Amino acid sequence: MTTKKYYGILLPPVITLCLIGFFFMFFGIFPFGNKTVSWCDMNQQTIPLLMDLKDILEGKSSIFYSTGNAGGMNFWGVFLFFIASPFYLLVIFIEKSHLIYFVNILFAVKLTVSSITAAIYFKYSHKKLKTGYVVILSVMYALCGYGIMYYQTLVWLDIMYLFPLLVMSIEKMCTQNKSAMYCAVLSLMVAINYYLSFMIVIYIMISIPLFIYIRCRSNQRKKAAFSFISSSFISLLITAPVWLCSFLQISESARGGNTISGIMYDNMFKNTGNKLSVIMCTALCAAVIPFFIKNKITRKKSVQYNLILLAFMTAPVFLDPINKMWHTGSYQCFPLRYGFIIILTLLTLSAHYFESIGEYGKTSYGFAVILIILVLSFFAVSVYTVKTKKNTLTSYVNILHISKDSLKILMTLAVFACLIYIISIITVRQKLLSYKMFCLIISGVFITEFSISASVNIGYAVNDGEIFTSSASLENKTAQEPYYRTKTEKKYLHVNMIGGLGYNSISHYTSLTSEQYMYAMKKLGYSSYWMEVGSNGGTILTDALLSIKYSIGEYFGFNSCQSIIKTDSKLKIAENKICCPIGILSNTAPEKMSDLDFDDRFSVQSKLAERLLGSDEMLHKYNSSYIADGTVKYKNGKYIITAAEPDKALCQIRYSLNIKENQILYFDVFDRLSNNISENYYESVKVYVNGNCITSSYPSQKNNGILKLGEFNNESVEIIIIMTKDIAVKSFGVFGIETETFKYYTDKLQGCDFYSHGRFITANLNTEHESYLYMAIPYDKGLTAYINGKKTTLYKVNDSFCAVKMQPGKNSIKLSFMPPGMVISLIMLIAGIVTIIVWKLKLSRLSRPRQILCKLSSLFCIICFTGTFIFIYIIPTALRLAVWISDLISK
To answer: In what order do the strands lie in the sheet with 801-806?
Structure first.
């Protein structure tokens, strides 16, 4: 085979890399500058978790259990959700401080690989397609709106570059009865990102039955169905350690909400513009569709299949109840996470159409000049728009949603591009444009489209990574023993960064955040929202009981119980002088400590002190001294604060305190346990202490934990609370903690330090009599406790923590972690391997069992398609329509 025949595969990655390179140079992005493409979820999740992965690869932590996240959590699901890409193994060679720039390289490489896999697919499935079209369509797939807009969760691009291989493997399996590639690619996709693989499963449940019954001959269908069902079943077995363990973990998370309610009552056409913007970054997809109307090409089975498949794939774009089902029932942002499926389907139809073009005429210079002028005009208008409408077009990089004004501009440009494509296609069909000139024209249009998309969705977001750079200087490069934790005084860093820097942390943000842990931390007074648990907030009491020995903050932000130990960065690290060990000994039975009964957050502090310290005398709750222009009532378990005349004056609540002993004062506003992004009582308070404004907007998304007002000793303190709106909340008021009294009780504690070793946590403790050891370690079903080598009961206490029973004498304590479901999933994995071997050696040679299985598979194939159609498409749409009809009748 000559080198020329490889051009279709060799040119796409070269062109893709060049286009990305030119874009990087223009915006000064590394390696052509010092800027990074990292923002949003890439800053909050991808980079910190890559830092965790580096520690795992270097043997510093376990892939199963992480003490750097959520106080100690199952990390297996997090790994499989975010950082299972084979490219991420390269982080072992990269310094943590350089990861902010390394993601630029990963982004470019993954899109380049997408162009290669797309080229392989087009070369295989469209053998008559000219090389120029293969190159153009492959580059269009690589640089489509999905890759440019959704790259923040970088692992999604792995599924994007694998998808063309999956489509190719489906064709091989159904037409040639070769299922090995399908099984391998599907298994790889599940292993790399099981979340998007849920959408891949919906796709194959729809596409493969359609392929079998439209494209396969009648005598092939049963065999194809058997290949589909058997290979899918084997893939299911061999990927069990991925999907089963992950499913069990995510079922315990705070993610979800009321799926049925969201489907029934949310806008039927929600986010349609945001979804269309992902597809319309490649306007050729829309331009080609009209040319299939009354076209002989639609007689081809392959075209019929793709047109019907397109109808199924685009229905969720317009009907959001269906879209929610594609997204496992709900989504927050990124409303078209399977958008690469739609784009490749549209590009496949484009390939079919280009194949159908017969002879090409010579270029008419008049028409060529007109088209070139149109392309140049499109480029000029695009450049002008991107430069002059920046304030409007930045909506996506600011709020992850495209505003109406921004959508109008982008859709106008997309229509402009679409018209040029349509005119070009008509011209070439009239044989007024040569093949080469046609390729040149559509390439010019697409390069302009890419420039717009990349500028708006990446260029506007590029930054110098200053926050990350300042964070990286705090990296912990020494072993931290015994097991203590680190927090931030305020939200100076992204919450996952603390663990990424090598510290043990109580904070975490991924879709795997445990609901019981999040709600327990909310009760304890720490800030959290959505799936994020922060370490800011809390009190000196909860910090000590959670073994938080170190705090990150600003120089003047620490109290007298903290001493600064690291000063060589903008942010400082201080050691907390009052800190309890992870394990605290008590005679109180676990049954009396099972729950943190929630009246308000002060009462939780009081109960914890009584349970673990033996007294709450260090805590003081203060009553207000004066209320002006409003009322404060306590009714039905809630503080109801209302302004007397809100149009004229705001309600003011004054606390005049005479502090004798050294106290740290706190203020709290909190209502209910939820993972909502916002609450109606947010931004309801301004707080002044001795005339100084502590905060002008509390609580807020970033700061909804207990608010520290300051440290005071032998002085008068005047606190003024100004209510900016009326609220009704469960927790409200000022309280203080006497530091010396608190230290007295913590010094009396009996307990033990723990040591972390991968998925094991160990300690040794001598006791005189039978008692209980309460551990500030989040309870997880995957934890198993051993005392002196013997398995013992692990109790869940204080909503989300652990306790074990101690025996008189020496106690060697060991906590071992294994992800729930791992044992049974490994058995399934072995069963899958055995099935493959048995099939290859024996079953494939037996005709009678194979015939029976083929018939059953054919039936099961129909059931799969029907069930998916009803459950994903019919039911959610019917529920929403039922509510709509009910509303019409009621009106």
So the answer is: 751-752, 583-586, 771-778, 801-806, 795-797
Q: Which two tokens stand for residue 178?
A: 């070769």
pLDDT of residue 821: 95
Q: What is the C-alpha to C-alpha distance for residues 856 and 229, in angstroms, rounded to an integer?
A: 10
Give the pLDDT band of residue 838 (cuts 50, 70, 90).
confident
Residue 266 exposed, middle or buried by CB count within 10 Å (0-12, 13-18, 19+) = middle
Question: Can you give the three-state secondary structure of 663-676, one letter per residue?
Answer: EEEEEEEECCCCCC
CB 538 within 8 A of CB 705: yes
The answer to whether the beta carbons of residues 447 and 468 sit under 8 Å apart is no
For residue 411 the two structure tokens come to: 């859709």
Whose structure tokens read 């299949």? 305
Report CA-CA distances (Å) from 827 to 241, 459, 759. Answer: 9, 48, 21
Mean pLDDT of the region 445-474: 90
Q: In sequence order, what DSSP letters do the residues of 668-702 get, joined into one string?
A: EEE------S--TTTT-EEEEETTEEEEEEES-SS
Question: Minimal CA–CA distance to 515: which of 759, 797, 760, 779?
Answer: 779
Q: What CA–CA distance (Å, rounded) separates 432 from 424?
A: 9
SS3 162: helix
d(CA 771, CA 787): 13
Identity of the amino acid at 661: E
Confidence of residue 1 (pLDDT cuts 50, 70, 90): very low
Separation of alpha carbons 225 and 217, rounded Å: 12
389-437 confidence digits (pLDDT tens): 999 998 898 888 899 999 999 999 999 999 999 999 999 999 999 999 9
Q: Residue 813 is encoded by which pair of tokens?
A: 């304590």
CA 833 to chain CA centroid, Å, is 32
Could you please report the per-residue DSSP string of 177-223? ---HHHHHHHHHHHHH-HHHHHHHHHHHHHHHHHHHHHHS-TTTHHH
Residue 547, both tokens: 């073994």
Q: How far apart are CA 880 and CA 127, in angstroms?
A: 44
What number of other Cβ atoms are within 10 A of residue 478's Cβ?
A: 6
Which pLDDT tens digit goes with each residue over 521-577? 999 999 999 999 999 999 999 999 999 999 999 988 899 999 998 877 788 999 999
What are the backbone angles phi and psi of residue 692, rounded to the nearest 5°?
Answer: -95, 135
Angle at alpha carbon of residue 220, lines to 217 and 222, rounded to 5°? 125
| Neighbour tally for 412: CB within 10 Å | 12
Are residues 565 and 575 in contact, defined by beta-carbon separation less than 8 angstroms?
yes
Q: Three-state SS across 435-459?
A: HHHHHHHHHHHHHHHHHHHHHHHHH
Quote the tokens at residue 483: 């097991």
Q: How far separated are the first and last CA of the chain, in Å rounded?
A: 72
278's CB contacts (< 8 A; 6+ apart) are 144, 145, 146, 149, 150, 336, 339, 343
**Of 593, 583, 611, nearest to 813 (Cα)?**
583
- Total residue length of the chain: 891
Q: Which two structure tokens, joined as six digits, stand for 340?
A: 């690469």
Type of residue at 382: S
Radius of gyration of the CA atoms of the chain, in A: 31
SS3 for 107? helix
* Parallel/antiparallel/unpaired status of strands 548-553 and 485-488: parallel
What burial class does residue 182 get, using C-beta atoms within 10 Å of its C-beta: 0-12 exposed, 13-18 middle, 19+ buried?
buried
pTM of the model: 0.94
Q: Are 814 and 761 in contact (CB under 8 A)?
A: yes
CA-to-CA distance for 402 and 61, rounded, in angstroms? Answer: 40
Torsion of CA 113, 115, 121, 125, to 10 degrees: -170
> Which secondary-structure segment (H or E) carries 156?
helix 156-176
- Compute the distance between CA of residue 164 and CA of residue 182 in angstroms, rounded to an integer: 11
Contacts of residue 107, Cβ cutoff 8 Å, sequence gap at least 6 = 20, 37, 151, 154, 157
Residue type for position 21: G
